[in-house]
Amino acid sequence: MKSIAIFYASTSGHTKTLAQTISDKLDGSKIYDINITGPEYINDYTNIIFGISDQEDLSMQEHWNEIWNDFLQIDFREKNVAIFGLGNQKNSKNNFVDSMYPLYKHLEESKANILGFTSTDKYDFIDSKACINGQFVGLAIDVEDKDHLNEIRINNWVEDLKKVFD
Ligand SMILES: Cc1cc2nc3c(=O)[nH]c(=O)nc-3n(C[C@H](O)[C@H](O)[C@H](O)COP(=O)(O)O)c2cc1C
């Protein structure tokens, strides 16, 4: 069985719910709330998904912030890594899901095999740090928008990851 783990943090519970949804679609995957476990088990996995939410302009979700210095010490070479980020397009048009970007940046610098870039089609926002070359650096989800596309986006994203996770 493929060894897959999801590491997330969540302030009001939305990221937690999505982490569970994704885990349910990936047979045998483990799920860790980094507010409880910290970054301790990340190194044990080759196939990794990170979940984060935006909580303030230009700063990251509080539990991610707490482990950030330890996270930066982790070497992601030869690991397959994907990110999902939760945000709000309506209230945060100019910084939608920005917090995926610092995760992406470290993963890139530490030579991870980054998976799961997604199209910005049919989203309604003006700017996002998480957009590189016209694509999101991970799966962007706005649960507050009640967007009927969320379920399709999640399913497509997970199916794509399944093909590459080893
Ligand atoms: C104080 C606060 C600031 C927020 N700032 C942003 C933001 O800058 N960009 C964005 O896309 N969403 C922003 N959001 C929306 C949250 O990211 C969104 O509600 C998300 O679903 C929360 O997930 P969580 O409950 O797992 O933390 C903000 C929400 C709050 C409460």
Oligomer type: single chain
Low-confidence stretches: none
Biggest sheet statistics: 7 strands, mixed
Under CATH at level 1, the class stands as: Alpha Beta
Molecular shape: globular
For CATH, the homologous superfamily is named as Flavodoxin domain
| Ligands | flavin mononucleotide
Terminal residue distance: 9 Å
Question: What does it look like?
Answer:
- It is a single chain.
- This protein is α/β, with parallel strands linked by helices and 166 residues long.
- It has one domain (4-164): 3-Layer(aba) Sandwich (Rossmann fold).
- It has helices spanning 14-25, 34-37, 62-71, 100-109, 150-164, and strands at residues 4-8, 30-33, 47-56, 59-60, 80-86, 113-115, 118-119, 131-132, 135-136, 139-141.
- The strands form two sheets. Strands 1, 2, 3, 4, 5, 6 and 10 form a seven-stranded mixed beta sheet that branches. Strands 7-9-8 form a three-stranded antiparallel beta sheet, with no helix packed on it.
- β1 (4-8), α1 (14-25) and β2 form a beta-alpha-beta unit.
- The longest helix has 15 residues, at 150-164.
- The termini are close together.
- The relative contact order is 0.17.
- Bound molecules: flavin mononucleotide (FMN).
- Flavin mononucleotide binds at residues 10-15, 53-57, 61, 86-88, 92, 95-98, 143-144.
